[in-house]
Amino acid sequence: xxxxxxxxxxxxxxxxxxxxxxxxxxxxxxxxxxxxxxxxxxxxxxxxxxxxxxxxxxxxxxxxxxxxxxxxxxxxxxxxxxxxxxxxxxxxxxxxxxxxxxxxxxxxxxxxxxxxxxxxxxxxxxxxxxxxxxxxxxxxxxxxxxxxxxxxxxxxxxxxxxxxxxxxxxxxxxxxxxxxxxxxxxxxxxxxxxxxxxxxxxxxxxxxxxxxxxxxxxxxxxxxxxxxxxxxxxxxxxxxxxxxxxxxxxxxxxxxxxxxxxxxxxxxxxxxxxxxxxxxxxxxxxxxxxxxxxxxxxxxxxxxxx
Length: 306
Hints:
5 strands, two-stranded antiparallel sheet, 15 helices
């Protein structure tokens, strides 16, 4: 029996899906990723497309399709929001910043300066070498201490990079457009550092520290889920570019993120690379041993985000 027989069953019976082999599940997924319905959801600020929750389905047909798609994806371990772990959240944030050619592990310590509109992130941002950023910031502090305010303002106004700040400072002080992908990626790294700082046994015995750890974990989880639900193109489309094109972009986004999760594939490849495998072999093992993507798509994904 294939998934279409389940779809047509009367009464609707999904039990056969749990008897499918892995090959049958993957075949069904390859078809359903193009057919499964999308739903328009909001988070209080933006609207976006994501996989339709069966309980929100407006028709019997969409209910059946979304239910079958959800079961098959879950059986293959392709949860829509990825694995909720600190490691997967960290990898997601790092992939985001690496897409801007930031080839470093400590993104929060990197310096950025504003574009012509005065925005640090969100389209016109620029990244500075860490050593240069540190020297510029030290010079800025020196001028503020030793010279009148007017001199410091004239010095910073001459070149935009003289206003550079660390990403950690921009994140804490609301310089990043709230609820954007940049904001959620930075928020994950910001609260991950809090967890790292408070994870020493001395702190974990303290009630206040435990409360802070819980709050940090909630922040990371919320931004991780929000990031995976969002796509700049989907949000823009819903702001006036047409719901048909928006749904199409939603499907493209789903294929990129959910088939399987991009961060999870990169995370798995990184584990194989750390134990000495080449990129080609890591891509192959990620596909054959871990069941994520194909060898070629994994290799291309790694080369795109490495």
